[in-house]
Amino acid sequence: xKVIILLITVILQFSFINDPINKTxxxxxxxxxxxxxxxxxxxxxxxxxNTSLLNHAIPVDFLLLDNRKMVFNNAELKLKNAFFDCGNQxxxxxxxxxxxxxTHPNIYINILEVEKQSxxxxxxxxxxxxxxxxxxxxxxxxxEHTDNKxxxxxxxxxxxxxxxxxxxxxxxxxxxxxxxxxxxxxxSLSTL
Length: 192
Known about the structure:
Blueprint: H1 2-15, E1 22-28, E2 33-39, E3 44-49, E4 58-65, E5 69-80, E6 84-85, H2 89-98, E7 106-116, E8 121-130, E9 133-146, E10 149-159, E11 169-170, E12 175-176, E13 180-191
Antiparallel strand pairs: 1-4, 1-13, 2-3, 2-13, 3-6, 4-5, 5-7, 7-8, 8-9, 9-10, 10-13, 11-12
Pfam families: YceI (PF04264)
InterPro entries: Lipid/polyisoprenoid-bd_YceI, TTHA0802/YceI-like_sf
Domain Lipid/polyisoprenoid-binding YceI-like: 73-188
């Protein structure tokens, strides 16, 4: 009986070893930019996100592996579709309709992991949810440290057909939106 109690005690002690998960809070600074860029057969369009509305702390939990890789848990950025400005009300309405904003009012971007490639380059794995459909991407990202802030820049190319989204057509189909959009981001981050 003593052996069983000793064994249970040892197992319980090892079960409560310090958690290797790092926790922090990140703030996206107002000078950040996030733009969705698209093309039609006639012109280009840009939908700018109002990043000044991202003024809250975003909790980030991560595990650091070999000082080269960070694996994240629940590092999620929620973007409200209504906070994108495409330049005029008609384009804003078309953009929100495209993203099925009535039933899916937000875009979710989850950082899954980042891996250091060099001092200023990372490879990031993201999961992006648009209109209720999630897809994973691996993209190159550049970083720069300035004034106690971290600048993170990158571009995500998305085929909207993969998200079961129908590109809008205007003027009886004469103006067609290309299936590919680019999400361009230049985020200034601070830890809290």
